[in-house]
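Q: what does this look like with heme C bound?
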Amino acid sequence: MKISEYLEPVAVATHYNGDNFVDAQTCVECHADIYKSHIETAHYNTSAIADEEHVKGVFKEGLNALNLKGVRLKMIKDGHQFFQLSKPKFGDTTVVKSELDIVIGSGVKGQSYLSWENNQLNQIQVSYFEPTNAWVNSPNFPDYAFRRPVDDNCLKCHVTFAQNENESGNGNVYNRNKLLLGIDCQRCHGPLEKHVVHHRANPNEVEGVYVDSYSDYTRQQRLDACAVCHSGLQAQQVKGNPFSFIAGDTLSKYSKNYQNYNRNLKLDVHGNQMGLLSESECFVNSKMDCITCHNPHENERGKHHSFNAKCLSCHATQDINAQVEINNHTDSQNCISCHMPLFPSNVMKLSVAGQEDEIPVYIRTHLIGVYD
Ligand code: HEC
Ligand code: HEC
Ligand code: HEC
Ligand code: HEC
Ligand code: HEC
Ligand code: HEC
Ligand code: HEC
């Protein structure tokens, strides 16, 4: 797609608040730079149609099999399509063929795959684990033939919007044409058809209309806009459909145990950055929120220099050096390697074919502190 191409505003789905979503490409007309960097982010790529560009798993003969206690799995590619072949070892041993239709995960740590059966969406048995470039049994799946129905409580953190047949979001029957894959602009800014229509009709308007500004939000509202997906799987939503929360809302009105996020200190691959950060001295003693350090429109992976600058914007070099007896403490270009180290997850470990020990996933802690 060329960046110069933009779309007419056409409603592609309707949120539970009555406002319409448009295709994210519609935003290019007036916000080309943000759009261009946004499509490089893990958010934008966290779900997609399962095509050659997005499926990261290996299909080469010899690397494409997974042998579990109760089932043999084989991954094959046929033209532009990808399939899982599942042959149970006991009971009915007929081979079941499932197409990989949707990819979940940009592939930083790994990917899971969803398959349509009519309008029912299921997660297939295998996932792909990036650090070992191998197929694994999906996290929390049993070791016999299994697939999991995918309801809104799975999709809510990995897509922009889904139109579930059942308004409570339970059940896995969807309107396939109203599934907005990827976490795009309107997941963080709300459905914006009115904004687009207004500004196209009023090209000289310089203030944004029918759109909120994050700078008008309270600290809690800004945190909640990220915490809705970054406070661990414990954050259950009880009010309305799982997609009904939008930026500007207050999460505690939705969630029965969000108040306890800071007690869920267990590291989890579905990371609890909110809980960990909120226990940090930096957070408690300042007004920081997630966007103090993160630019939500950019792929910042590995850009450690810019994170150092964020640390030093609050921690003056001379203050730290006066307190800390480490030579050249702040000369280091990598504050986070010592103060936000990578930790192996306690809960997220994967069995990998050919290896006896389970392999843990490494996650960068948001509990900023002094470690050995
Ligand atoms: C026809 C032009 C136009 C289109 C299309 C458009 N916008 Fe805007 N938008 C504007 C203008 C003008 C402003 C105000 C100036 C600015 O902040 O850039 C604005 C501001 C914004 C703001 C900032 C609000 C604030 O005050 O901080 C957001 C967020 C935003 N737009 C999101 C979007 C998204 C998402 C899309 C696509 C769904 C979109 N816009 C499409 C013209 C447009
Ligand atoms: C709708 C759910 C959702 C919301 C809202 C959300 N995130 Fe995320 N975020 C995710 C998911 C899912 C991933 C993992 C994406 C992947 O790699 O597939 C992620 C990944 C990230 C990453 C890692 C990026 C990388 O390159 O590995 C950062 C940083 C991040 N989010 C920060 C934020 C911040 C800051 C906000 C609020 C402005 C926010 N997120 C809002 C779901 C969300
Ligand atoms: C409460 C929000 C939430 C829910 C619900 C959720 N995830 Fe995630 N998921 C995340 C976040 C956030 C990340 C990024 C991991 C991190 O924080 O380091 C992630 C990461 C992943 C990844 C790895 C992505 C990568 O690029 O490495 C996969 C695969 C994944 N999730 C699959 C699923 C599946 C399948 C479901 C449904 C059964 C699900 N997730 C439900 C928030 C969620
Ligand atoms: C992960 C959540 C997230 C996504 C996805 C996202 N934004 Fe934003 N956006 C934010 C946050 C948070 C701010 C406030 C940033 C700040 O104040 O520093 C913001 C600010 C803005 C602004 C106003 C300030 C500025 O930076 O110019 C515009 C315009 C905007 N976004 C447009 C978009 C468009 C267009 C897209 C999609 C191409 C998009 N956003 C995707 C979270 C997001
Ligand atoms: C918004 C301002 C702000 C930012 C940004 C910030 N901090 Fe802090 N940090 C503080 C405050 C305030 C304290 C409390 C102690 C103090 O007043 O010096 C603190 C405390 C600390 C401590 C002592 C922790 C303890 O448990 O005793 C460390 C280490 C630290 N910060 C490292 C960092 C690193 C590394 C970064 C960048 C990743 C960072 N900080 C970013 C404000 C900030
Ligand atoms: C003090 C600075 C700071 C703040 C505040 C902060 N982060 Fe981060 N975050 C980082 C750094 C540094 C990394 C590591 C980036 C890298 O390794 O490329 C990171 C990484 C992440 C990742 C990827 C984790 C992984 O291991 O894959 C996610 C997700 C994330 N942040 C979400 C958030 C959310 C949500 C908030 C707010 C609750 C937040 N962050 C607040 C500095 C911060
Ligand atoms: C090689 C590891 C390492 C690196 C790199 C590092 N630190 Fe530290 N830092 C430490 C240790 C260890 C302490 C505790 C020393 C002590 O208590 O005397 C500390 C203490 C601190 C403190 C707390 C001071 C206090 O006692 O209140 C702050 C703030 C801090 N570092 C910020 C930073 C910043 C900002 C950077 C990057 C510019 C950075 N550190 C880089 C290891 C490191």
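Residues 261-265 have pLDDT under 50 and may be disordered. The pocket of heme C (ligand 4) is lined by residues 24, 27, 31, 34-35, 38, 43, 183-185, 187-189, 214-215, 291, 296-297 (CB under 6 Å).
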